[in-house]
């Protein structure tokens, strides 16, 4: 069973000597760098939005008060406390307070409906709930009769009733009284937390049946942070911009990395503000889902199309040169003198402006939660923006594989984390073993037995390892399908090809299981297609009118034809549907991490798909 390859400069002591819990990590960070900035966040002041911040000492004081308040409310070690809120700094402080009280965090996406919220809270046995606002409180009140175990709701911005619902200030006051009476209590609780204690319950956003609660231990999270620290990828001089949903493991793992490495984090979960915030915050790194990079790529491409003329020619020349130059460099070859000079000039004219859109200081982005198209990664790399692709599951505390800034291969998700193991099963499935693998599914022995066998996590993904231990994911095992002609098709590979070509696409879902040919469901990006409409005689039309036009369909057909030219005959997309809306979290067709729910999209358009084959 091959262990993960370890770089010569990796500090294994960071893993072997790591602290036993997230709470201990947090208090250690507060002690070591009390005056350093910990969190930065937007606030409204005088009708304008400005950024405020907390030092580690200030964060520590708030967290300890909240933690003591939870203990005063009767919360005991490993009991569950839920958070139903969008990404914001209060979410992080609440999570850290739960950790310091010895309890475990149940994460609830703010978009989760009342029925599923009730299921998650009852299945997890959550005793207390942090609810962001009145909308979240309303979900709890709707089914309060079923939430008999929830003794108290603590709201960030909602209306407190002084009884079942209290505010953060009320919790802090309870905590201050508790600390005054028992000043050492929280420290004693933190000292008693071990690596095998439950830290987090994250419920998977399944498309069928009820979601499963993934049990992640304290030692899993501290391992994740320690691995990043041991690789020397990040340190106190870095600045993270964090927008990812904190109810998702990708967001959570970046918090453990922060505690281990000590960098400050700017927090704002508003997806529509990401690009604007990058220009203001000027981070050195950010984690993101591939959709963010696809959207930025499409936006820049469509802007250049609209510019036209000399600017478009210079832009196209720059990327043709950049891709050639970059390809030689990654192959270890030296570009010639003429290419070197041309690249230097075009870097100042074009690439520097692209980098500036992302703040101008980014050392690298980390891409996860879904596959990143290789061509898009190479496009960004040619502009001097490194995207390190990683891979993992909620069941592996997010991070299981990741590329290193000094040792990466575009098109792979990197090697397995040091201190873990990986093997490829006979059918190509990726199996993982290590400290980051879940304890199991909460209250679900059967599902746990199916996923874990002798400690090996069966990921459900198909992949292959190269000679250096770098993993390439080829598809999701359950997404592979066979046409009625007996040919196997990997839909994600086709989808990635289309997204690399078409700058107007939002989602492209390939369909064809047991069908006699492959078809697709196409959704177009609202902003990009609105711009396209302005230049194609459809300005002022609604989204539905634009995407339903003959001109738009002909445009999509052109990109489908280009994609088909790259595919095997049996993989080619013969027919397609263009949706009259863009899938979103709100429509239930995207997960909160912006990954398409394939089965939901297919089910919602079953009649239209059937009509393609009639």
From TrEMBL:
InterPro entries: AMP-binding_CS, AMP-dep_synth/lig_dom, ANL_N_sf. Pfam families: AMP-binding, AMP-binding_C_3. Coiled coil: none annotated. Keywords: Fatty acid metabolism, Ligase, Lipid metabolism. The keyword Lipid metabolism applies. The keyword RNA-binding does not apply. This is Acyl-CoA synthetase.
């Amino acid at each position: 069973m091959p262990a993960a390859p370890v770089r010569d400069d990796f500090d294994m002591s960071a893993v072997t000597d790591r602290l036993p819990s997230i709470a201990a990590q947090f208090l250690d960070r507060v002690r070591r760098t009390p005056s350093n900035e910990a969190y930065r966040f937007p606030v409204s002041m005088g009708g304008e939005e400005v950024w405020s911040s907390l030092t580690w000492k200030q964060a520590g004081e708030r967290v300890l008060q909240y933690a003591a308040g939870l203990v005063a409310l009767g919360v005991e070690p490993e009991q569950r406390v839920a958070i139903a809120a969008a990404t914001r700094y209060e979410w992080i402080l609440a999570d850290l307070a739960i950790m310091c009280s010895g309890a475990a965090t149940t994460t609830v996406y703010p978009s989760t409906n009342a029925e599923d919220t009730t299921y998650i809270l009852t299945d997890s046995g959550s005793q207390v709930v942090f609810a962001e606002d009145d909308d979240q409180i309303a979900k709890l009140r709707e089914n309060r009769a079923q939430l008999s175990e929830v003794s108290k709701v603590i709201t960030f911005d909602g209306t407190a009733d002084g009884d079942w619902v209290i505010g953060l200030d009320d919790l802090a006051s309870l905590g201050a009284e508790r600390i005054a009476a028992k000043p050492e209590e929280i420290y004693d609780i933190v000292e008693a937390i071990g690596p095998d204690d439950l830290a987090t319950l994250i419920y998977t956003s399944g498309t069928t049946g009820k979601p499963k609660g993934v049990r992640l231990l304290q030692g899993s999270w501290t391992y994740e942070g320690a691995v990043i620290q041991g690789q020397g990828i990040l340190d106190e001089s870095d600045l993270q911009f964090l927008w990812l949903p904190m109810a998702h493991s990708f967001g959570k793992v970046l918090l453990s990395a922060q505690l281990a490495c000590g960098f400050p984090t700017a927090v704002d979960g508003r997806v529509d503000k990401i690009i604007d915030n990058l220009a203001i915050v000027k981070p050195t790194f950010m984690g993101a889902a591939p959709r963010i990079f696809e959207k930025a790529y499409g936006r820049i491409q469509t802007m250049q199309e609209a510019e036209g003329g000399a600017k478009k020619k210079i832009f196209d020349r720059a990327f043709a040169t950049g891709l050639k130059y970059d390809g030689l460099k990654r192959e270890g070859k030296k570009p010639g003198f003429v290419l070197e000079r041309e690249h230097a000039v075009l870097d100042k004219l074009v690439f520097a402006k692209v980098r500036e859109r992302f703040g101008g200081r980014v050392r690298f982005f980390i891409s996860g939660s879904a596959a990143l198209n290789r061509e898009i990664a190479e496009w960004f790399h040619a502009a001097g923006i490194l995207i390190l692709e990683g891979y993992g599951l909620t069941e592996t505390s997010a991070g299981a594989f990741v590329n290193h800034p000094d040792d990466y291969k575009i098109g792979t998700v990197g090697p397995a984390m040091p201190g873990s193991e990986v093997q490829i099963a006979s059918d190509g499935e990726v199996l993982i073993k290590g400290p980051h693998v879940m304890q199991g599914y909460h209250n679900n022995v059967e599902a746990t037995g199916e996923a874990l066998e002798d400690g090996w996590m069966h990921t459900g993904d198909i992949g292959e390892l190269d000679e250096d231990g770098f993993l390439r994911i080829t598809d999701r095992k359950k997404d592979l399908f066979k046409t009625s002609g007996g040919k196997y098709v990997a839909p994600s590979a086709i989808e990635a090809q289309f997204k690399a070509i078409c700058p107007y696409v939002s989602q492209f879902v390939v369909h064809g299981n047991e069908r006699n040919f492959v078809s697709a469901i196409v959704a177009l990006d609202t902003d990009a297609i609105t711009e396209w409409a302005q230049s194609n005689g459809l300005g002022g039309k609604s989204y539905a009118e634009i995407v339903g036009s003959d001109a738009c369909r002909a445009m999509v057909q052109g990109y489908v034809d280009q994609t088909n030219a790259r595919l095997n005959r049996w993989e080619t997309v013969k027919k397609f549907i263009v949706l009259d809306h863009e899938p979103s979290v709100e429509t239930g067709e995207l997960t909160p991490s912006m990954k398409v729910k394939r089965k939901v999209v297919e089910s919602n358009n079953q009649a239209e798909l059937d009509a393609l084959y009639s």
